[in-house]
Predict the structure.
Amino acid sequence: MRRAIERLLAFSLRPVINATGIVIHTNLGRSPLSRKVLENVAAVGSGYSNVEYDLSAGKRGKRHIHVSRLLQQITGAEDALIVNNNAAAVLICLSAMAQGKEVVVSRGELVEIGGSFRIPDVMTASGAVLHEIGTTNKTHLQDYVGAINDSTALLLKVHQSNYRMIGFTADVDIRDLVSLGQRHGLPVMFDLGSGCLVDLKPYGIQHEPSVQDMVKAGVDLVTFSGDKLLGGPQGGIIVGRKQYIEQIRKNPLARAVRIDKLTLAAFESIFMEYLDPDGAKQNIPALSMLLQSPREIRARARRLASAVKRLCPGVTADVVEDVSLAGGGSLPGVEFPTFAVAVKPSSLSVNELEARLRTGSPPVIARIRENALLLDSRSLGDREITAVAEAVAAAVAG
Ligand SMILES: *Cc1c(COP(=O)(O)O)cnc(C)c1O
């Protein structure tokens, strides 16, 4: 009876320790939030707030103004809106811009993100008509030109997100698409997926266009996720031309996909960090974990290895080199060099150790490679080292 009561009162959704090295792990909640961001969420959430109240006028205000000003400042866009997630952002943009009309998309960009988000299906749900062009591997500007007709409403580009095409391929540069759109008086939209707000080129990541670059290139509407490379809570951010953002705000779906005050509070706090891009790389956990140097990762791995050896004599725990991925459909094909602690227990199998860690308290999620359990220190916080070592000790002791 005691066990039944304990099970009833145990939380289903609870913190886990991410030792997979995958920083933007969708199954583990994507981006973790900093204490400073959560303090703002607590401050706004524990009482009343001016979420829709204009303090200077003393009457009803607008929910989006709390973040649109900062997004304009950071991205250079004329206006901005945040909705429930990027899937919702794409849906409402298509619905507001192209209901009953054609949207031109390359066949190479008709992607599935997972969890039933497929561009053709979202298009159908929005009421827009998909006009596919090109082939899977090659799409040329001429294909867009040939597709434009009286019922064309939008030229759409979609980030390939979770996969990369290599070999005999061609796609159209966003700048060429923008000038084509301008010649025909057609808006251009880019579903950027992850939506990075810092320049990753100094870190050797060449092919991830930043939101700012796309705004500067003249893209009329850019959509991206709040909880991928941006490092915030779940949300879908739309930035672009004022006239289109206004049109989207007036769409009936806007109310259905609007965000709550807690999410707004988190975003405002995160965008404050982005006013100083170098500070953002330090203070936003997802960015600092992705961009930390291999030396820092190795130092943490060494501390973990010695803690494991100290708490569990008889267990092999060696620091090994490996690679980690960004995750969350971000930066496909980019491998980040990392260090992990390879644990080989003597008294139980590696699979059994993995299962015990996963079902322990707190749960520790790790991966298995070559008959060793790998604890990747890229996604571990300094404060989690002891907890992970203790979890290994408890799992080995059974
Ligand atoms: C991740 C992604 C989405 C969905 O974003 P969510 O915020 O997870 O809803 C849509 N389009 C692209 C290209 C993506 O990478």
